[in-house]
Amino acid sequence: MSAVDHSHAHGGQLPAEPENATLEGRNKILGFWLFLGGETVLFGTLFATFLALRGQVLDGPTEAHLYKLVTVALATFILLTSSMTSVLAIQAMHRHDTKGIQLWLGITVALGFAFLGLEVYEFFEYIHEGHVFTGSAYSSAFYTLVGFHGAHVLFGVIWISMIMAQISKKGLTVVTAPKVYVAALYWHFVDLVWVFIFTVVYLMGKVG
Amino acid sequence: MAHAHPVKRYRGIMDWLTTVDHKKIGILYLIAGGFFFLIGGLEAILIRIQLIAPEMNFLPAHTFNELLTMHGTTMIFFAAMPLIFAFMNAVLPLQIGARDVAFPFVNALGFWLFFFGGLMLNISWLIGAVPDAGWTAYVPLSGPDYGSGGVNFYVMGLQIAGIGTLIGGINFLVTVINMRAPGMTYMRMPLFTWASFITSALILFAFPAITVGLVLLMFDRLFGANFFDPAMGGNVVLWQHLFWIFGHPEVYILILPAFGIISEVVSTFSSKRLFGYSSMVFATILIGFLGFMVWAHHMFTTGLGPVANSLFAIATMLIAVPTGIKIFNWIFTLWGGHIRFSTANLFAVSFIPTFVMGGVTGVMLAVAPANFQFHDTYFVVAHFHYVIVGGLVLGLFSGVFYWWPKMFGRVLDEKLGKWFFWLFFVGFHLTFFIQHFLGLQGMPRRVFTYLGGQGWDTGNFVSTVGALLMGVGTIVFLVNIVITSRKPQDAPADPWDGRTLEWTIPSPPPEYNFKQTPLVRGLDAFWVEKVDGRKEMTPAEPVGSIHMPSGSILPIIMSIGLFIGGFGFMYANNPFDNTIISFLFENYIIAIGGVGITLFCMYLRSVNDDPGFHIEPEDQVEKGAKL
Predict the structure, then answer these.
(1) A60 located within any domain
(2) In this predicted model, what pLDDT tens digit does every residue of B227-272 receive, in sequence order?
(3) What residue of A is the nearest CA neighbor of B516?
(4) Is residue A140 part of a domain?
(5) Which of B151, B531, B563, B607 is the 20 to 30 A CA-CA neighbour of B162?
(6) Contacting residues for B507 by C-beta, under 8 A, at least 6 apart
(7) How far is B225 from chain A (nearest CA, A)?
(8) Which residue is closest to A51 within chain B, CA to CA?
(9) Mean pLDDT, residues B593-613
(10) ipTM above 0.90 for this complex
(11) Are A39 and B205 a contacting pair at CB < 8 A?
């Protein structure tokens, strides 16, 4: 397996899809897809918990009263845009354009931080209005579901920043390319989860 | 080779702490799982001694609850699971003709996470706060109002071990999909590999559910959340759903690899191809699929209503169909075969009727109206011990005797092996058969004692005698291991006239497994060559330099990090005498520091590329590297 892989890693022509060039790279990508399958069950379980407990607000503020759709819509717009910029980073990778990768990943990270800033602001507002983690079964479920997603975004921006540092140090190789690719996969997944949070938590909370 | 990397190679104990070799990790899993199996077994014997006669005072009630909880938790998560992983590691890559697993580093990390999770759970004995809410940890008993501090050890220990199991499952999925030798198509994979493959998929989709359940329970217990607190709008049945959405697939995670082992052993010792190979594969997949559809049969008496109960009852009964296919296929494999009753085959053959008995009571329990009668009685205890001990454990012991020569280069003593088999087998039936009747006579589960004169006295006495007999059998097995380990390491490559690829290479295999990747020409790849009069596989590549991953100490440090972090969270609200210690725990410095160690190791792993090293043809010896 490795005699061929190894020569790629040490100079020579970079193949068109550097993330798929080695068995290690292909293993990493397949393993990450499977990991995302597990993450889907994780978030599915959190969604189920939230749906089961969302009516239990006790004397806390109700969902319709709490949610500010303008803020949430802005957050959604920011995160979906960041999904697109991560695609542009992958396209740059396929052109072997290291600068392009850094630019688009940088924008992705910046958008991720903007999203996190909005989320923190939103949580502070909620706490101000008496919607606290220990308030009711609903509030615990809300903060756990949305917080788990937020933690994923935070992990993602730190991770992608570190990959940018690696790219600038080591350049684009058959070793670094799969890392960029799986980070982009992760980022899409986190954005996809947010689409469901936007729908199930916020829109249904406003309507229902 | 042009680029030789200077790589530090560890020796002795450091070699074992840093190894990423799947064969050594398999041995680590076997030793650690075996150790926890002995602890769990000891707990079982203490439980049985307390129940030997009515109104015994051998153990206080509270200790009994702790032993009961720890027995179940230890046996399922820290004995059965790692022993399965031991064989998956030791055998699966060999069976598909691979030099290693897809992610050797992740493999080592999975082991150490499991190990420190198990350590954390069992340290509770030393600290004196032992989980006591049953292995299912139902709320509100396990919640902040009623559960003792011990439940924290359950939550944290299982969480850490669960992460290890999850990444282990992903590793084997990718290994099977991407690492098969040329010609090893899916429908030529040995059945143990198939079973492990499906089991890994079940792990991937089942474990996140328990992860969430444990997180919610932890939030309730440590941070004042209200998921399971009805006074605050929480729902106790939610825990039962989350637990069993994981818990029922977990049962199949346990039994499918045993099915795989039995298929290998029965076929090898009948000197016949496995009967109905394709239907065996299909049945394995079907059982794995249906395993996700039946979790509520653990909750028939919760009050889900007749429609839900009926659906889950039917789905449960459906599983008997693919399982029955398997039973018949094993019998037809034996039929007309040239059967050799080695110890491995004794365990395998005895598995068949024993597991059928467990399956029959399973179908009885699936009848929802009857379940109201069986629920929480010893009938249930008898049922799940028939499928887990009579199924999984007999399968594991079969695998131990079958693959021991391949793992250690020594054949276990057959005479002592047969003593072990008969003591364990008779002891098992003595212990659990009578418990069906105790249950039908109304003896409830989980009671620490009972009044005499209810017709339960003899049954309990017999059951305890059986448990002791199993204990004696296990001692004979330990003696066998000690005696065998003193013999020279001279096992032949193929001691059983095997059919699959692991028997084509030396016992134990060299660290690169296959000097030349084999070309697979059919199902039972080695047997195909034997039938054609050859003594070895046709190579698929010339002899050449072999690239190997280097060992790493990071997996164990990452696991220690989470271990420390777990204690940090558990004792954040604990009043300590020492103000410095109090300060460190109260402000989550220990908790965050522990998790920080793990994250920092992840960072190190990411930035430092592992160049690995090469084993040149002149260093590739026929006889494997010694342990």
Answers:
(1) no
(2) 999 999 999 999 999 999 999 999 999 999 999 999 999 999 999 9
(3) A1
(4) yes
(5) B607
(6) B405, B406, B408, B409, B491, B492, B493, B495, B624
(7) 5
(8) B238
(9) 92
(10) yes
(11) no
What would the 3-class secondary structure string for A160-184 be?
HHHHHHHHHHHCCCCCHHHHHHHHH
CATH class of B25-552+610-619: mainly alpha
In 3D, which of A77, A70, A104 has the Cα closest to residue A89?
A104
Q: Cα(B308)–Cα(B319) distance, rounded to whole angstroms?
A: 17
At residue A63, the 3 state secondary structure works out as: helix
Identify from B165, B170, B180 which residue to disrupt to test chain A contact, counting A C-beta atoms within 10 A and taking the largest count: B170
Residue B300, both tokens: 């028939």
- Residue A156 maps to a domain: yes
Check which CATH number belongs to the domain holding A163 and give it. 1.20.120.80
Query: Which residue, B329, B344, B327, B315, is CA-closest to B402?
Result: B344
Query: CA nearest B4 in A: which residue?
Result: A6
Smallest Cβ distance to A37: which of B204, B223, B226?
B204
Taking the C-alpha atoms of B57, B60, B65 and B69 in order, what is their torsion angle to the nearest 10 degrees?
Answer: -90
Chain B residues touching A55 at Cβ < 8 A: 233
Domain count of chain A?
A: 1
Say whether B340 sits in a helix, a strand or coil. coil
In Å, how far is B173's CA from the nearest CA of chain A?
8
Residue B183 backbone phi and psi in degrees, to 5? 90, -15
- Give the single-character DSSP code of A61: P
Q: State how far residue B159 is from chain A, nearest Cα, in angstroms.
A: 13
To which residue do tokens 């749906």 refer? A51
Mean pLDDT of A69-92: 96
CA nearest neighbour of B21 among B96, B101, B111: B101
Q: Where are the domains of chain B?
A: 25-552+610-619
| B476 close to B416: Cβ distance less than 8 angstroms | yes
Q: Which of A10, A37, A41 sits opposite B209 (nearest CB)?
A: A41
Angle CA(B31)–CA(B93)–CA(B328) in degrees, nearest 5?
90
pTM higher than the cut 0.80: yes
Chain A: residue whose CA lies nearest to B201: A34
Number of CB pairs, chain A paired with chain B, less than 8 A apart: 120
Instruction: Identify which of B213, B235, B547 has the shortest CB distance to residue A2.
Output: B547
* pLDDT per position as a tens digit, B428-443: 999 999 999 999 999 9
CA distance A37 to A202: 24
- B432, B389 Cβ separation under 8 angstroms: yes
Euclidean distance between the first and the last CA atom of chain A, given in angstroms as a whole number:
56
Tell me the shortest Cα–Cα distance from A29 to chain B, in angstroms. Answer: 10
For A34, nearest residue in chain B (alpha carbons)? B170
Domain that holds residue A136: 18-52+67-207
Q: Could you give the residue ranges of the DSSP H alpha helices within B142-295? A: 150-178, 191-223, 236-270, 277-290
Sort B126 into a burial class: Cβ within 10 Å, 0-12 / 13-18 / 19+. Answer: exposed
The C-alpha of A67 sits at a distance from chain B's nearest C-alpha, in angstroms, of: 20
Residue A2 inside a domain? The answer is no
